[in-house]
Give the backbone structure.
Amino acid sequence: MVRTATYQIHGLVPAACVFANRYDREDVIRSLGKEIALYPPLKIAELPSTPDDLLKLDQVFIKSELKVGVVHVKEGQTTEEEIFDNNGDSPLFEEFVDLLGDRVKLQGFDRYRGGLDTLHNLTGTHSIYTFWRGIEIMFHVSTLLPYEKDDSQKLQRKRHIGNDIVCIIFLEADDTDFSPGCIKSHFLHTFIVVQASPHQREKPSKYKVSVVSRDEVPGYGPYLNDMCEFDKGPMFREWLLTKTVNAERASYTAPKFARMQDRTRGQMLEDLVINLNNHSETGKMPQPYRRGSWRPIGHMRSNFPLQDSVRDTFESFETLSNDFAAAFRRADLCDVTFIVGKFVALFLTLTFIARESIK
């Protein structure tokens, strides 16, 4: 395997040759260099830590910590200022956020904090946190973030949620549509809209779900069926968290984040090559890597084969998909159904195309 800052090339050596010791490493390296026209020629790495460093290079793009926005929208609210002015006076919304995770006290909290202050309560006193399938998720709940009545733009809230990539919108309304353009952000790429009627009285609570992403974000599962309705319970929570994690990872293929990944990957490879060259020339062991060069920033781009192996952990839930189909009492799962205001006609067309492609 040859890694560069922007691509990888794979070659296979028959297992029989490896076990029979019928190949020469230098010949393989020399042939591979000629095949892909690399100059200067490839050299065999003699540093004992190289295999571990290469493994870190792949693993660093797999995030095990996520921060996700959660915003409460009431009937008739269509502007950013109205939405961020809500202050947690809804039992239906409180029931929903308690479904997402545990309500934790921030001061002294020693797990992943998602950019929230855990020393002086500068970003609120409590938040919602969960540890799910080996991933720590801190939810930036709008009603739990600091509120300043005189701040019309509610910057204390927007600076956290506006810097998230995925945002869950809890739409407590019957006659109000949510438009993703009402929250202005360069980072938000996916909205998962969970709609609940403020007049429902039956238990368990029922939720209607929609998903909308920017056009540069590829599709990701698990997909909705055309009814888009869930009852509150473990299955809905599993679906929602799976969709949230996949939304974040799919969003990292968007150009804005892909450029950041390429830059970080290039820096990491440069550090590794410098250490190898220094060791080859002087025999000295490598120095610690530059601060920040191994900082996880997201998932790999789609042209890297590691992505499929990681995504399969979340997206190949055949049993889970069957459970969803059984719960809906239908088997015709489609892509994504959208109900976000003025974009309805366009999104319904996309949904029809998605169904046809599945057929």
In short: Confidence is low (pLDDT under 50) at residues 289-359.
